[in-house]
Amino acid sequence: MDRRTVLRSGVTAAVLGLAGCGGRSGGSAFEEGFEDGLGRWDSGAAIGPEVAIDEFEWSVAVTDERAASGQQSLELFTEGDYDDGTAWVVHPVSVPSSGRYRATVTASFWSESESFNTLRNAVMRLGTDRPEDESDFPDPGVNTTTLGEVPYGGLREPLHLAEGWREYRFEWTIPPLSTDTLYVAAGTSVVWEADATHYLDDLTVDLTPR
Q1: Count of CB atoms within 10 A of residue 164's CB?
Q2: What is the pLDDT, as a whole number, of residue 26?
Q3: What 3-state DSSP class applies to 77?
Q4: Which are the contacts of 153, defined by CB distance < 8 A and separation ≥ 6?
């Protein structure tokens, strides 16, 4: 994995991303524990305009260093020199193009320690396009669970709220779709000037008819 390669694909079609779901009417549309490697996951990163992306050090890789369940998880490294920068992974997932649904997305993130300072934020997103920039994820402190029908679902919430694994969750009331593919993305966003490694595991997307 080339940590200096940026995802800039600009796909504006289908997104709720997770492989292997063939238009189910409810229940689990996607589950990922990284036991089989990266598969169809792509990676990307972005940083503010005052810093060239090539200067921002980041990487993602599947590892057996630790896991919330199973034997493997996704390792996410981000440098902190610029007090800025976001790195993520993204995956397509097939969904029914008709009907109305509420999506619930959960994932477990690992932090090395608890901290009263916000060192990193967890970022997650579900929508009809791939994230290309930091602004494609929610603002700090936002979780779309209570926002009703919005263009995309997601969250940006502090990591390091506890030592070890912690589950993060958001819901999204999906507007009527003209596509049968969405994208799900998850990663970390730099807040504090220090290098940091986190782990991601047990990501799921569930759909409930409404």
Answers
A1: 14
A2: 55
A3: strand
A4: 103, 105, 125, 126, 127, 144, 170, 171, 172, 173, 174
